[in-house]
Each structure stands twice: as structure tokens, then as C-alpha cells.
Design brief:
By secondary structure, the chain is α/β, with parallel strands linked by helices. It has 20 helices and 30 strands. Strand 4 and strand 5 (about 115-120) form a beta hairpin. The protein is globular and about 75 Å long. Bound molecules: adenosine-5'-monophosphate-propyl ester (PRX).
Length: about 650
């Protein structure tokens, strides 16, 4: 793999530093920097003892024989020999401890409907669905796709799968029918759980219809279970005889109790597809015991969770953030959380602050792109609301610019709440670099220090350590991915080959500052982060070239004021074909169909050719510079420098 280091922008040297208040420090799980450093040291010197102690806080049907088995690296095993169940640790453990009446989820629908669900009620709902799945013939190891809006049934479906050992593959409800089909075929999914529709910005998204189109050519799908989201009038929802069943009918006729399956440590828990550098998304594999311990402990320490907290993560369960920090990590800690279905600006831009006021949210975890949108909407939406219940803030998904960080700190955190800027990935399962809220002095825009047991390094291609370069993780950690579904070689090649199989390669650039803090500088590969959504430029390119008039295309990421990054597509049109608005609209429609609307480029530019080296390689750096209006510098290595002039002229005109 070649690394294009030119995409690593150097962030400004941020001098400001913010320490947690002594009140926060005194009450925190990790209290003060000294405590963090001592525990970190312990976790690196003796990781097995550290992780065994953490695992001891959870329930095991059988304890492990070994904590870490690296005999077949990079196919590491954690807690081998153990038997456990994630749904048991999220539900039964709390009920056994007498917390059954505690609210697990304050759910708020976009139109204003709401439901409060206790841990005991959630247990019943999960058991019922688990039993219903069994009645439909689902067995341990079967893959089940979940394509739902942010309604309680999404969390229930995930936990019901975990309860019986079925493997969930949640597909974010913004993905298109083609994306559903590709994911279902790749993992030979036998069932899909969906809904008639879901609300988004006042409109109904007709999910079942998208599923119908997606599974049309998927013979492996035997069952489609449909949640009725909005009563009888939401949308017309045709059901196919023999394949489709209503969720509410299935769960009405089954037992309230379903014993949790005793899962082996490395049994597959879930698949989550994510973008890489090719046109084909990867089915990231997470297994049971290690992910369980990692999601539990990161949640506990990074969010400093206490029994009376009301936590709210605004992510969708369709992404890894929702898997770990809405479902598994948070529920294992037995706290109360808010789950919200819809958009932050419906019915108006004050919705989030109203929700915080209504439920007295104490911990709020969101994405920088949302924070930038709040800033743009103006302070008036916030000032009228009582958000004084907040005590801790978090961000995730992309680098946060210092300006947005400061706004968040002042306007939302009242200069009182620590901010945890958490760097991690679908593949890492949980937080990797993050401040400890009661220990780390934060710097705006900086993910700061490693979580326990995580040993980062910044390296060059040749493995030498540098101040600014490519981020590497030197040691395995329990939450790490275990593979790419159906493609062990791709797992090795993508993540473990860069430094001779020794270290994990996450694909991000990083810089270490004078305090030893790590700053994430963005991706070093062709993955772009649009509003915190990870998109491979190759995925768009492979959609464009399906069009009969397109010869070639190159998609690049550019900085975007709100989204963090946006996409710009350069498309070479076959000689003699029209380069007009019609073609542009057709190409946009193809992205909607091939990936989903969230992957639409900001601009599509037509060209007769693309800038290439003499050996024929597309010079993406130049395309990025054109798209960002930068000085192009030296272009003499190009086979045909006039191509660039043409593109530049067009870009300025467009
Ligand atoms: O580039 C990093 C960026 O998001 C990528 C991972 O994307 P995904 O697997 O979709 O997971 C997102 C939610 C964990 C990373 O490779 N990223 C994530 N968090 C941060 C970040 N970049 C900078 N700062 C962060 N806090």
C-alpha cells in the first residue's frame, strides 16, 4: 500500500490547556493525572493482570484459561476458555443486583412521542424477540441484518441476537438498497429486521421498501421481520407471504424469558461493514469476551459513569459508536440513557437542548460536525434552555477544530465540563486515545493520551519513530477487530503488514507534542470522513464508472466548514458524450442508489482527462489542491500539465 502523506495537514500549535475542576477530579473514577499514569503503567507492564481485573467486574459462566493468546498473531484471542454473554451482562446482571426498575432508555421519537423502558422491561422485550427468532429457526452463528431507525427495537434486536448467539450486522438506515444487498450477500444473512418507516426531519423514510428492493436478489434471506414504527397510517407497507412477518405479532406469542446462550470467548458477536481503500466495504468482525470487557471499561472510565448519570450519545446504532457507546458499553454499566430518533433541527434547532433539559442529561457525547452546525445556528437556541445538569462532554468521529471545541466548552459545558475527544475506529471496538476526564488536562482539538493497555507510536514507513507521521498501535487490546468477514488475508494485508506484521496500522496520521499528547491529523489513505461518516473514495469511483458515458473518475476529500470533509468528484467523460447537468443528475442518482444520499459529492467536475504521472498514476494531491483552490506548486512530473490548467479553469467557473 502506498501512503499519501500529503493529506496530513499540520494542525496549529494550540497553546491553551484546560484542567478538570478539583470537584470533578475528587469524584472521578480515575482521579488526577498521577492516578492515570500509575494505572496506565500497570496496564502496559502487565496487561494480562490489568485486563483480568477489569473482566472480574463482569459476569462469566466460565472464567478464562488465558487472558491473551498471541500464538497465531495477528489472530489474537482474548479470555480464551471463558464463556459469557453480552446481553446477560447488559441486562440480567443489573436485574440480579436489584436494579430492574431503573430506567435503561428514555426514548424520544422525532415527532415527540416517547417511551421509558426499565432494565427489567428491556430484559423482557429482548427475551421475547430472542424467543421469536428461535421460533423462526434462527440458530447460533446465523447472521441477521438489522436495518432500523433509532427506535428501542434497534437496541432490542442487537441484544436479542447477542442473547442467542446470532451475529448481528446492523446497516445504518441511510444506506441504499444496493448497499443492503452487498452486505447481505457478503455475509449470507438469513434474516432482516426492519421497520415500515422511520422519521427524519419531519419526513418518513420508507425503510421496508428499501429492504424489499435490496433483498430481491438475495436467496439467502428467508425472513423479514417488520417493526410497525408509526401506527397504521405511517406508510403503506406491503408484506410478502411466507417471508415477511410483523414484529409485534411474533413477540406476542412467546415466552418472556430466554436463557442467555453461553458463548465462547471468540464466538462472533457482530459484523459491521466499514469503508476502506477499495470499492468493497469490509465486514469488520468483533467477537465476544474481549469486546465485552473493552466496551465496559472504556465506557466506565472515559465517561466516568456513575449510577445516577443520565447519558446521551447522539450517534446512530448503525455505526460503531452506537454499538459500543449506546448499547454494549453503556448498558453493561447499568446507567440510564437517552435515545433519540431524529434530526437535531426538528422541529427547530433547539431540539437537543430541550432533550437535555427534559431528561436532565449529565453526559453528552456527539460529533464535531454537529457542534459546528450548532455554532452556525447561533447561541440563542441554547441560552433559553436549562442544560446545567451536564457534567461531562465528549466528541467522536473526526478531528474537532479548536474553534468548535472552545464553543462546546463555553456554550454547552459552561467552562465547567471536561471534554473527552475520543479517537478510535470501527476496527478498534472502543476508545483508544482520549483524555481521562478527571485526570487529563485537555487541549482544544487534541485526543491527548492512550487508554489503558493501548501503546501508540508515531512512525515513518520504515518503522522509525518520529514526532509527526503515521499512527501505529504496538500492542493488541481486547476490543480489537478479529478479522474481515470471509477474507483473513485482507485483514492481515490491511492492518498488519505495514510494519512487518508487528504493529496495527489504523490509517491515520498523527503528531506528538511536547507534553507527549497525540494529535490526530486525519487519514493517510483514500478514506474520507464526511460528517463523521467514513467513505472510501474508491466506492464512489466504482459507482461512477458504471455509467456508460464515464471513462474514469477520481474522488477526493476537501475540507468543509460543517461536515469536516466533503467529497469532490472529477469525472472523465467519454469523447463525444454530453457533459451537462443531465449527466450530473444521473451520477448523483447513482450515488444515492449505490451507496446512500449521505455520500453525495459537493461537486462533480467533468474533464477530458485526469492529471497523471508519466507512469499513469492519478495525482490525487493535485486534484485535492484544485478542489481546495490551493497553489499547485510543481506539476512538471505530470504526463500532460495542460490537463491541470483545464480543470482549474473549470473549477473556478463552476
Ligand atoms: O480518521 C479517524 C476518524 O474516524 C476514523 C474512524 O472512523 P469509523 O471507523 O467510522 O469510526 C468513527 C467512530 C469511532 C478514524 O480512523 N476519527 C474518529 N475519531 C476521531 C477521529 N479523528 C480525529 N479525532 C477523533 N476523535
Amino acid at each position: 500500500m502506498t501512503i499519501d502523506n500529503s493529506s496530513m495537514e499540520s494542525v496549529s500549535h494550540e497553546e491553551r490547556k484546560f484542567s478538570p475542576s478539583s470537584e470533578f477530579v475528587d469524584a472521578a473514577h480515575i482521579s488526577g493525572d498521577k492516578a492515570y499514569r500509575a494505572l496506565y503503567e500497570k496496564s502496559i507492564q502487565d496487561p494480562e493482570a490489568f485486563w483480568a481485573e477489569a473482566a472480574g467486574e463482569l459476569h462469566w459462566f466460565r472464567k478464562w484459561d488465558t487472558v491473551l493468546d498471541g500464538a497465531n498473531a495477528p489472530f489474537f484471542k482474548w479470555f480464551d476458555g471463558s464463556r459469557t454473554n453480552l446481553s446477560y451482562n447488559c441486562l440480567d446482571r443489573h436485574i440480579d443486583a436489584g436494579l430492574g426498575d431503573k430506567i435503561a432508555i428514555h426514548w424520544e421519537g422525532e415527532p415527540g412521542d416517547s417511551r421509558d423502558i426499565t432494565y427489567a422491561q428491556l430484559h423482557i422485550e429482548v427475551c421475547r424477540l430472542a424467543n421469536a427468532l428461535k421460533v423462526r429457526g434462527v440458530q447460533k452463528g446465523d447472521r441477521i441484518a438489522v436495518y432500523l431507525p433509532m427506535i428501542p427495537e434497534l437496541a432490542i434486536s442487537v441484544l436479542a441476537c447477542a442473547r442467542i448467539g446470532a451475529v448481528h450486522s446492523v446497516i445504518f438506515a441511510g444506506f441504499s438498497a444496493d448497499s443492503i444487498r452487498d452486505r447481505i450477500l457478503d455475509s449470507e444473512t438469513r434474516m432482516v429486521i426492519t421497520a415500515d418507516g422511520g422519521y427524519r426531519r419531519g419526513k418518513v423514510l420508507e425503510l421496508k421498501k428499501i429492504v424489499d428492493e435490496g433483498v430481491m436478489t438475495c436467496d439467502c434471506v428467508q425472513d423479514v421481520i417488520v417493526v410497525k414504527r408509526g401506527g397504521d397510517h405511517l406508510v403503506d407497507c406491503p408484506m410478502m407471504d411466507g417471508r415477511d412477518s410483523w414484529y409485534h405479532n411474533l413477540v406476542a406469542n412467546v415466552d418472556d424469558n430466554c436463557p442467555a446462550e453461553e458463548m465462547d470467548a471468540e464466538d462472533l458477536l457482530f459484523l459491521l461493514y466499514t469503508s476502506g481503500t477499495t470499492g468493497k466495504p469490509k465486514g469488520i468482525m468483533h467477537t465476544t469476551a474481549g469486546y465485552q470487557v473493552y466496551s465496559y471499561l472504556t465506557s466506565k472510565y472515559v465517561f466516568d459513569l456513575k449510577q445516577d448519570d443520565v447519558y446521551w450519545c447522539t450517534a446512530d446504532v448503525g455505526w460503531i459508536t452506537g454499538h459500543t457507546y449506546i448499547v454494549y458499553g453503556i448498558m453493561q454499566n447499568g446507567v440510564t440513557q437517552v435515545m433519540y430518533e431524529g434530526a437535531p433541527n426538528h422541529p427547530d434547532e433547539g431540539r437537543f437542548w430541550e432533550i437535555i433539559e427534559k431528561y436532565k442529561v449529565s453526559i453528552f457525547y456527539t460529533a464535531p460536525t454537529a457542534i459546528r452546525a450548532f455554532m452556525k445556528w447561533g447561541n440563542d437556541w441554547v441560552t433559553g434552555k436549562d442544560i446545567s445538569s451536564l457534567r461531562l462532554l465528549g466528541t467522536v468521529g473526526e478531528p474537532i477544530n479548536p474553534e468548535a471545541w472552545i464553543w462546546y466548552h463555553k456554550m454547552i459545558g459552561a467552562e465547567r465540563c471536561p471534554i473527552v475527544d475520543t479517537w478510535w475506529q470501527t476496527e478498534t471496538g472502543g476508545h483508544m486515545l482520549t483524555p481521562m476526564p478527571g485526570a487529563t488536562a485537555t487541549k482544544p482539538g487534541c485526543a491527548t493520551v492512550p487508554f489503558f493497555g493501548v501503546e501508540p507510536a508515531i512512525l515513518l514507513d520504515d518503522g522509525s519513530e518520529v514526532e509527526a507521521g503515521i499512527l501505529a498501535i504496538k500492542k493488541p487490546w481486547p476490543g480489537m477487530l478479529r478479522g474481515i468477514y470471509g477474507d483473513p488475508q485482507r485483514y492481515k494485508d490491511t492492518y498488519w503488514c505495514k510494519w512487518g506484521g508487528k504493529y496495527y496500522f489504523p490509517g491515520d496520521g498523527a503528531r506528538c507534542d511536547e507534553d507527549g499528547y497525540i494529535w490526530i491529523l486525519g487519514r493517510v489513505d483514500d478514506v474520507v470522513n464526511v460528517s463523521g461518516h467514513r467513505i472510501g473514495t474508491a466506492e464512489l469511483e466504482s459507482v461512477f464508472v458504471e455509467h456508460q458515458d464515464v471513462a474514469e473518475s477520481a474522488v477526493v476529500g476537501i475540507s468543509h466548514e460543517i461536515k469536516g470533509q466533503g467529497l469532490v468528484a472529477f469525472v472523465t467523460v467519454i469523447d463525444g458524450r454530453d457533459q451537462d447537468e443531465n449527466l450530473r443528475n444521473e451520477l448523483v442518482a447513482m450515488i444515492d442508489k449505490g451507496i446512500g444520499k449521505f455520500a453525495r459529492p459537493e461537486r462533480i467536475l467533468f474533464s477530458s482527462d485526469l492529471p497523471k504521472t508519466r507512469s499513469g498514476k492519478i495525482m490525487r494531491r493535485i486534484l485535492r489542491d484544485i478542489a481546495e483552490g490551493k497553489d499547485l506548486g510543481n506539476v512538471t512530473t505530470l504526463a500532460d500539465p495542460t490537463v491541470v490548467e483545464d480543470l482549474q479553469k473549470q473549477y473556478l467557473k463552476a
